[in-house]
Amino acid sequence: MSHKSLLQTLSDLIRINSVNPAYPGGRPEKEIQDFVSEFFRNCGISVVEQEVGPGRANVIAKLPGRNSSRHIIFEAHSDTAGVEDMAVAPFEPDIRDGRIYGRGACDTKAGLAAMMHAAADLKCSNASLSSEVWVVATVDEEHLAMGAVKLREDSKASAAIVSEPTGMKAIVASKGCLRWRITVKGKAAHSSKPHLGLNAIEQMGRVLDALRSETARLRSLSHPLTGTPTLSVGLIHGGSQVNIVPERCWIEVDRRLIPGEDPQEVLNSYRALLEELRSAYPDFCAVMEPPTVQEPPCEIPVESRVVRTAVQVLKELGMDDEPGGVPFGSDANRLSEVQIPCLVLGPGSIDQAHTAEEYVETDQLEKAFVVYRELMKRLE
Fold this sequence. Notes:
The protein is of the alpha+beta class. The chain has helices at 3-15, 30-42, 105-124, 146-153, 200-218, 263-280, 305-316, 331-336, 362-378, and strands at residues 46-53, 56-63, 67-77, 94-96, 99-101, 131-138, 159-162, 171-174, 176-185, 230-238, 248-257, 286-288, 293-295, 298-299, 324-326, 342-344, 359-361. The chain is elongated, with a radius of gyration of 23 Å.
């Protein structure tokens, strides 16, 4: 594998618009998945397309191993965040100053390209693998993770390496995520006689005060690798026009969970918070809707085989071999729900993901290739 060919594949991936269909300008991932499938077929590697939805299929490339009853997943998602307000051309890869710019450069097309070339290199060299290796390009990670959910239905993997931008640091703990809407109901009236109505925006203030107190409480909880849980109100909408007392106001909440927190118990605690407000204020009426995102946190023991193997490879290559944690989630959260031990490990920094000038450092891309190839050879 040459530096040039690896960069070329990443450039080709960036050129393909694979913005998730849930976002402006998005589309089903068919074009990029066709590219990935063709790459593997041209290398003589068996490919299976796993349908997730119309025009949306996971691509699973399979390298045989001596033990056909076991397989290891190497997964990267092919969809990206949106491209509005980007300061660089999103689909025109720009290589300069040891970086390659473009949407998806680090999240996670660099990891995908490195996994593709690692598998191709092993196929070319007729390497003997202990277990079957699945290199999987999934769809929809940036929205509902439908690709990962579908993948886990048909997989009994003994381990998974999930590519997200971690600076090639082995991540063993990730936060989970809950997102839901709270709607407060009031009563409309003419703004000249507000006493005849019930202002839903003012009522929502009570909810926001209660959530602020809850956020302070969360600082007392902590995980050694992921830190504290967090809560953020990211959206609010209320009223219809300025001269009408608003009869409705809603917010959307983003709550990040640390390993050890149960999503259902967390949701129940916020339902209880609303019940307390109802008891305190007879005119208070609020509805907490079912979550739109319910992603549990995940954690893998540092003594597990996949972690020990990754740590050894990183140490041998002179890289940071200390296992860590991250505040964000990934497809690893979904795969770990069915007891697949998941290690998150990928090139680039999460600080660059989804940004106006998304990039990945080219030396990180090359390191990822080497690390993935070694892990494919050693994992059982």
